[in-house]
Amino acid sequence: MAAPETSTAAVPTLHTNNTLRNAFGGVLSFFILLLIGVLAFLIRLFSVIKYESVIHEFDPYFNYRVTQFLTKKGIYDFWNWFDDRTWYPLGRVIGGTVYPGLTLTAGTIWWLLNSLNIPLSVETVCVFTAPIFSAFASWATYLLTKEVKGVGAGLTAATLLAMVPSYISRSVAGSYDNEAVAIFALIFTFSLYIKTLNTGSLFYATLNSIVYFYMVCSWGGYTFIINLIPMHVLLCIVTGRYSSRLYIAYAPLVVLGTLLAALVPVVGFNAVMTSEHFASFLVFIIIHVVAFVYYIKGILSPKMFKVAVTLVVSVGLAVCCAVIAVLIALVASSPTKGWSGRSLSLLDPTYASKYIPIIASVSEHQPPTWPSYFMDINVLAFLVPSGIIACFLPLTDASSFVVLYIATSVYFSGVMVRLMLVLAPAACITSGIALSEAFDVLTRSIKFQLPGVSSGAEVDEGETSSDTTEARNDEVKAEKPEEKSKDRPSKKSKKKEREHVEKPSAKAKVKTKAEKKRLLALPLEASAVSLLLLILLGAFYVVHCVWAAAEAYSAPSIVLTSHTRNGLHVFDDFREAYAWLRHNTDVDDKVASWWDYGYQTTAMANRTVIVDNNTWNNTHIATVGTAMSSPEKAAWEIFHSLDVKYVLVVFGGLIGYPSDDINKFLWMVRIGGGVFPHIKEPDYLRDGQYRIDSQATPTMLNCLMYKLSYYRFVETDGKAYDRVRRTEIGKKYFKLTHFEEVFTTHHWMVRIYKLKPPKNRIRGKTKKSKSKTSSTSSSKRSGTKKNPWL
Fold first, then answer.
1. Beta-strand relationship, 608-609 and 590-592
2. How many CB atoms within 10 Å of residue 104?
3. What pLDDT digit, counting tens, does each position of 62-72 carry?
4. Is 531 helix (H, G, I), strand (E, B) or coil?
5. How far apart are CA 400 and CA 554, in angstroms?
6. Measured between alpha carbons, how far is 100 from 108 in angstroms, rounded to an integer?
């Protein structure tokens, strides 16, 4: 009788130790997560430390301008703002054409800080919004991975995401773009979906719909969510893993999420009318049919169930066919079959280059190269396969979602380099799972084989606490029938007694688990070497991420730098040109340039532009492309009809800046030729090659872009040598007849020209010809010579 008393007394002690251990682990996890958030924030500040607090790239300048308007005018004026400084003479309704999530988030942060008497400028808030939300994204990654494989995998995945270069490239300080907050919303939506899937809680399902609404407000990439989750639900149904938890996780998201998404002006009825959303509705019908079948299965007899299933399946098929017919009708009525151009370019990578050159012309819409994977996710590319295998051991609803997530994100990242950003969280999650499982196996193998470890302490208490608790609960449940049987013996109590005798004790379960883990242990030397290699791999990843954050992705595109033998050179030509426009032109003057520079011109120079980075009107962009591709006189007539006063071109031939307008010129030709057939790309190519030297075609040498870029270029070195194309230009000496140069920056990167006023109008020509005729006749009559000075 003494042995049972000892084991019974040990149960509370073990329970207390496990409670203390869990409490300590929770506190430690909290502080680790806090440090991960600090790391995610600080590693993105290299751009501010090395350069200055400035907005990066092109699109962020429009977001910054909109945020400024929101903080000054208020939310109601923001929704009704008609911007007459863009897309002249058409204009743009900002409230109905922009995703407001980023702007409202930064505006709210600015308002809260000012309410607390912390007077930060709007620009400062915009610069630091992305680093702040990168910390939130790391914490959301922890929550998602924790639901899949536990706390250890969650902390590892959060650490990896905090430093992954692909995410850093879009979230450095100053990168004020939609992805700054959208990636956090994306991961958090998936995290709440998995949480609902594991718990079946309607609260988490409602919260998931709200976070999905925030994602819709922030980025057009929300369509990835509303297609990936239905794919996972359909996968669970097909593989026989349907449950009420799956229904609770999906149905509220479709209903409430779609209703909330329709409230966003830029989305509106597209939430129910475009092909990107149809898959969610179809799966919504399917899951209801399956749920009804499971419901009637529980209340009907097997015979009646067969009849009911036949009826339900028939009705369900009829409804599905009707819905599919309606969807086909809607899709057939659209020239793009209900898909947006970007979505079609994802499904068919050749679609944009064939039909929509404006999409194909964007560099971030090009497919990535293999080195870019190593640059953006580094060693994670080698850990992802191991993480996928770990997700199958065992395969759960949550782990199957991670596998589906990584598979789809790998495909989309291979189509468009911009979507490497979507791959980064999936790669971090699977790599975190792989590293966590590997460290678990290696450390356990080393612990099992350390000398001096007793047989009773071979099993880690943390690993076996759940098994011990489970066995202890079984003992407690089995003891209760024994007590009842003493008072009132019955058949059920006797049966439970027999089951209790057959069940193994808690110690037996722990020993069985320990024996199984001992069989999975690796040799001590192999475990130690493998653990060292994993640590070195992690160190290499950290070094690469810090280098990418400090050197590759910290430089703002508006301020360029170059390291030479004489030291660091800074090229601030963009801001120099925009400052000249702001201070030397009238407020109502219109500036024409290629669409890449529209947002910056409007935000920094405060001047009206013809086209900008929104690219919503292909015809308007084609008009500018046609003007740049045309001879000088024809280009002057096009710009004059648009009331353009100044033309801005970017030229990198002097300093070797490769992203100039000459390198982008063929896209101008293709886009212009797509609308105006007289512009033909072969006219600008010599034997299929794009040349600007003496072998260039006459059409190329006489077009406006060539003249505005290379005007007076021969005066720089006497040879007119282009450092980007690495050749001397073909036409060195020429004059401009309809344009005049008004400003060229210090390094010749930005050149601004002014349209000359029209010289000889029709009325003036008529009067002049009449005066000439009258003077000639009078001179003939008088017989005197014409005065040459009159």
1. parallel
2. 18
3. 999 999 999 99
4. helix
5. 36
6. 12
Instruction: Centre a 10 Å sphere on the Cβ of residue 698 and count the other Cβ atoms it contains.
Output: 10
Q: For residue 182, how many other CB atoms are within 10 A of its CB?
A: 27
Give the position of tokens 């429009």.
62
Each residue's pLDDT tens digit, 63-122: 999 999 999 999 999 999 999 999 999 999 998 899 999 999 999 999 999 999 998 999
Of 422, 420, 430, 421, the closest CA to residue 399 belongs to: 430
pLDDT per residue over 599-651, tens digit each? 999 999 999 999 998 888 889 999 999 999 999 999 999 999 999 999 999 99
This prediction has a pTM of: 0.84
How many angstroms separate the CA atoms of 31 and 8, rounded?
36
Structure tokens at 242: 């349907």
Whether 413 contacts 368, CB under 8 Å: yes
- How far apart CA 153 and CA 218 sit, in angstroms, is 28
Taking the C-alpha atoms of residue 30 and residue 73, their distance in angstroms, rounded to an integer, is 40
The phi, psi pair for 650, rounded to 5°, reads -110, 125
394: which 2 tokens? 């065992």
Alpha carbon 178 to chain centroid distance? 8
Q: Two tokens at 686?
A: 């010599």
Q: Which three-class secondary structure state does DSSP give residue 406?
A: helix
- Note whether 655 and 748 are within 8 A (CB): yes
CB-based contacts of 659, cutoff 8 Å, min separation 6: 650, 652
Strand segments (E) across 248-397: none
Tell which phi-psi region holds residue 35, choosing left (phi > 0), alpha (psi between -120 and 50) or beta.
Answer: alpha
Other C-beta atoms lying within 10 Å of the C-beta of residue 767: 11
Token pair listed for 613: 């980075």
Question: DSSP labels for 683-743?
Answer: GG-BTTB---STTS-HHHHHBHHHHHHHTTTHHHHSS-EETTTTEE-S------SSEEEEE
| Structural contact between residues 169 and 556, judged by C-beta atoms closer than 8 angstroms | no
Extended beta strands in 468-595, E state? 560-564, 567-571, 590-592
Structure tokens belonging to residue 182: 């959208």
